[in-house]
Write a structure and sequence with these properties.
By secondary structure, this protein is of the alpha+beta class. Helices cover 51% and strands 17% of the residues. The chain has 7 helices and 8 strands; from the N terminus they run ααααββββββααββα. The radius of gyration is 33 Å and the shape is elongated. It is found in: Cell membrane.
């Protein structure tokens, strides 16, 4: 008796299927991983884009602005929300792209038969190479990331970054662009920023150290300075920019030729310079009314330049 074994009972040649899979299984698996990684990245990017777009659209509606550029005429806080949200969205897209790419690479290497020990060794080697060869880039990236998330600077802020001072025009993950008062655009690497002095957040203080003749009536001059500042702060044009009552802090320094008195006005951060210029003009007019012969600036000893805490 002879048994036929060439064709399996169920009609499927599993040996042929196994041989075909041995030949094409790895390429198909790699293709599936690549397509899956691409789809995952598209899905994640779409989700992040919708979240960022929702935040930006909400700000535009509250600001009654038709486009992002129109937000320049809106409150600075709304502009900062848009800039910060988009920067965070860009960072998340980049980070997730690298994570998905790394996972896909690991899966592909596993399909090709690379064992776990080799993968760990390769990851350690790549990490060491990145740490040695790209220390500056990584430092720039991390510092820029913290600057964005902590809202240390924003577009339109007047800042002192140590390396450059001026108005922020762009906040990137690696480089921050600052334009100084002369119009020079400075590109400051985020990794080189050790401190950030921001003059556009919260409130600011206008400090005027006014020198008057040594024999002047200090009390009279102080009252005149305070009256001038108070009258200005109560005018409709300046009422929204001055956020506290003006103060005189008394005598800051004394020299044989002059007495320096300090006048202080607390303002909104973005209105400091405008208030300071107008207040100086009015102080000059107020002192002219008293008929004071002001001492020469070169003779004034400015010992009291430190601001009162």
């Amino acid at each position: 008796m002879r048994f036929e074994t060439s064709t399996p009972p169920d009609g499927v040649d599993w040996a042929a299927v196994a041989a075909w899979w041995d030949a094409w299984g790895a390429p198909i698996g790699i293709l599936i991983v690549i397509v899956g990684a691409f789809i995952a990245f598209r899905v994640v990017r779409t989700i992040i884009g919708r979240v960022v777009g929702g935040v930006v659209s909400g700000v535009k509606r509250r600001a009654d602005a038709a486009d992002t550029e129109a937000l320049s005429n809106s409150p600075l806080a709304q502009v900062r929300v848009v800039q910060r949200t988009r920067a965070i969205g860009s960072v998340l897209n980049t980070m997730l792209a690298w994570v998905i790419a790394a996972l896909a690479l690991i899966l592909i290497l596993s399909i090709l038969g690379v064992n776990a020990a080799s993968l760990v060794a390769m990851a350690s080697f790549l990490g060491a190479a990145a740490g040695i060869g790209a220390q500056g880039v990584i430092k720039d990236f991390l510092n820029g990331l913290f600057m964005v998330f902590e809202d240390q600077v924003g577009i339109g802020d007047l800042v002192d970054l140590g390396a450059a001072s001026g108005v922020v025009e762009s906040v990137g993950i690696r480089v921050t662009q600052v334009r100084d008062v002369e119009g020079t655009l400075w590109y400051v690497r985020n990794g080189e920023i050790l401190r950030v002095g921001n003059r556009s957040q919260g409130w600011a203080r206008v400090i005027i150290d006014q020198a008057v003749p040594y024999d002047a009536d200090v009390d009279l001059v102080e009252r005149q300075l305070l009256d001038v500042a108070t009258a200005m702060s109560e005018e409709p044009e300046w009422l929204g920019r001055v956020i506290d009552k003006p103060e005189t802090w008394g005598i800051e320094s004394v020299s044989p030729d002059a007495v320096v008195l300090r006048l202080v006005v607390r303002t909104r951060a973005n209105a400091r310079d405008d208030v300071a210029r107008e207040l100086r003009r009015r102080v000059k007019d107020g002192l002219d009314e008293l008929g004071l012969d002001l001492p020469s600036v070169q003779k004034v000893v400015g010992d009291g330049l430190e601001a009162k805490p």
